Amino acid sequence: MEELAIKLLAEGIQKKVVSPGKGELSTFPDGTKVIFHYRSSLCDGTVLDDSRTMGGRSKPMELILGKKFKLAVWERVIATMREEEVADFTCDVKHTALYPLVSQSLRNISAGKDPLEGQRHCCGIAQIHSHHSLGHCDLDQLQANPQPLVFTLELMEVLTPGSFRLDIWAMTDEEKLEVVPQIHVEGNALYKKGNVKEAAEKYHNAIACLKNLQMKERPGDEGWIKLDLMITPLMLNYCQCQLVQGQYYEVLDHCSSIISKYEDNMKAYFKRAKAHAAVWNETEARADFAKVVELDPSLGLSVAKELRAMEERIRSKEKEEKGRYKSLFSYDSNALATATTG
Predict the structure, then answer these.
(1) Between 20 and 30 A from 224 (CA), which of 99, 148, 176, 202?
(2) Which ranges of the sequence are coiled-coil (predicted)?
(3) What percentage of the chain carries pLDDT values higher than 90?
(4) pLDDT, tens digit (0-9, with 9 covering 90-100), for 40-60
């Protein structure tokens, strides 16, 4: 350990063990997954980011070693730690110059946004010198005036290569194509068990895999179309989950997008019709239900059932509104009579 500390010091990294870990030091081969909490601070103690509070939840960082993570120093220092160890690493500017961009991505993720939102399509060094705002005052200041940072890391778990499923971002294109059918099956099983939210997440992840690959193809080309045909059934399954969860406008958007490309997709019309009915778009719902029967006459009875349910909901709503208006006018009349006699 002393040799490691001396080597780090020579590289402009100073390590201070806060709490020793347990067991033997891992060899950390490429492909190892490390799970750790981090707190990033200025040398005066000002905290920039803390994984235990970021986004209002405590979610540790997961990193696959050897995948050229933008902040290379994290891989370097993690390799000196045992499981459950907590340590402070004070790192020179040469190791922290890209931290503002990394922090922006981590903050985006914690807020449920695209990790690359707000970043320009150029290399990290070019972005540093572009004077482009990162959307956070503290990061803009750090980008304009790079300085040493203190990273407090707590190594929670070390997983050897092959003992876990890679996150989507860490997969090769071939691995993404291979894992999609498996995720699809897992989503179907969850939906059948009634775990709708978890099923939706599976379908969403599978769609993300394919969308990532589709971005590398020219729209309309054979490769792009092939991927889109794989995305469509997953998107329809996702829409079914969103229907159950009451996310009707999201269903309208996704199904309309499918129909704009595949005008004979009966399932998209059916789900869009149900979403229209749920948000009181009676005319649009009837048009979509009619299209469903046109595309597949065998669904006539199912469509008739949906129409009856919609009509019953509309009648109930109208009756409720009439009662509300009647009570309102009755209240106004009584109030007026009281005021007159008074």
Answers:
(1) 202
(2) none
(3) 67
(4) 999 999 999 999 998 777 889
